[in-house]
Amino acid sequence: MVALKMILLIVSLGMDTLLISISLGFIKTKGKVKIALIFAFAEALMPLVGLFIGKGAGQLFGEWASLIGGIALLVVAVWLVFFEDEDEEDKLERNLVGWTLIITAVSISLDELAIGFSIGLIGIPIALTIILVALQAFVFTFLGLAFGSKLKRYLGEWAEKLAGIILGLLGLWILFDAILHLYHHG
């Protein structure tokens, strides 16, 4: 039963990582390993942060973590759709770097923060769970970036806009889910 809980937890946590990585693969083809490592680090760090914050403070912040993550994804999406410089010939070959990389990594790992608040209570081994979360984040990110970069050639100039739209829709979904959760528990 513990193994099933862990598999379901790890796979469900990886779905947003995979979707975001595919959309980022549309526009970012360089530095896949670096991006995958940063995403894995962020997703492994967040449960530890949640664990150390503790249950009392964690419940309050945990209620808002998904909301913050959804907003952060929307900010990145708006940037990609409306503000990215379209005159650069090599814009699709740039690396995902700096604040965009950090904001994206943190925004997709906020659900892991909430997991950290209750990780001890759901009856799964903490260290193994964190290792598996990091591993799935690395694998899903790398696969998503590779798959997205393969699709990029078929999408041409729409790749970046599509990536922004996908990130925006995912951000809206996370935001909507967070608002519903807050409404039902508030």
UniProtKB/TrEMBL annotation:
<protein>
    <submittedName>
        <fullName>Manganese efflux pump MntP</fullName>
    </submittedName>
</protein>
<feature type="transmembrane region" description="Helical">
    <location>
        <begin position="126"/>
        <end position="149"/>
    </location>
</feature>
<keyword id="KW-1003">Cell membrane</keyword>
<dbReference type="Pfam" id="PF02659">
    <property type="entry name" value="Mntp"/>
</dbReference>
<keyword id="KW-0812">Transmembrane</keyword>
<keyword id="KW-0472">Membrane</keyword>
<feature type="transmembrane region" description="Helical">
    <location>
        <begin position="161"/>
        <end position="183"/>
    </location>
</feature>
<feature type="transmembrane region" description="Helical">
    <location>
        <begin position="6"/>
        <end position="27"/>
    </location>
</feature>
<feature type="transmembrane region" description="Helical">
    <location>
        <begin position="34"/>
        <end position="53"/>
    </location>
</feature>
<feature type="transmembrane region" description="Helical">
    <location>
        <begin position="65"/>
        <end position="84"/>
    </location>
</feature>
<keyword id="KW-1133">Transmembrane helix</keyword>
<dbReference type="InterPro" id="IPR003810">
    <property type="entry name" value="Mntp/YtaF"/>
</dbReference>
<feature type="transmembrane region" description="Helical">
    <location>
        <begin position="96"/>
        <end position="120"/>
    </location>
</feature>
